[in-house]
Write a structure and sequence with these properties.
Blueprint (H helix, E strand, L loop, with lengths): L5 E4 L6 E4 L1 H10 L8 H12 L14 E4 L6 E4 L12 H11 L1
Antiparallel strand pairs: 1-2, 3-4
């Protein structure tokens, strides 16, 4: 296939950006769709996703929220924001309670 440099419009900032022929070939070989964001907006989005910006709950890393275990008093972290922080268990107490119930 004959790839030629072409301009695309960024869906975030609306600016035109150059999509070079070499990039087009790479995207084609990998089966990727054309980029919808310019390099600057892609970089900003990646920084938001990876560097403390707004992150979807499914992308949050373990240990985002500090808790105090309601059974043993140990301070720990959980990967979710507790609705009732007073009723949250640390990993050890949670595992013990889960074993008792099974």
């Amino acid at each position: 296939m004959d790839y030629k440099d072409k301009y695309l419009k960024c869906r975030d900032c609306g600016q035109d950006f150059l999509w070079k022929s070499g990039e087009q070939e790479f995207f084609s070989v990998k089966g990727f769709p054309p980029p919808s964001r310019c390099p600057d907006c892609r970089k900003k989005r990646k920084e938001q996703r990876d560097g403390g910006g707004i992150v979807a709950p499914s992308q949050q890393s373990m240990g985002d929220h500090k808790i105090t275990c309601s059974l043993c008093g140990k301070v720990g972290e959980v990967p979710f924001e507790p609705r009732n922080p007073e009723g949250v268990l640390c990993a050890d107490c949670f595992a013990k309670k889960h074993q008792e119930n099974n």
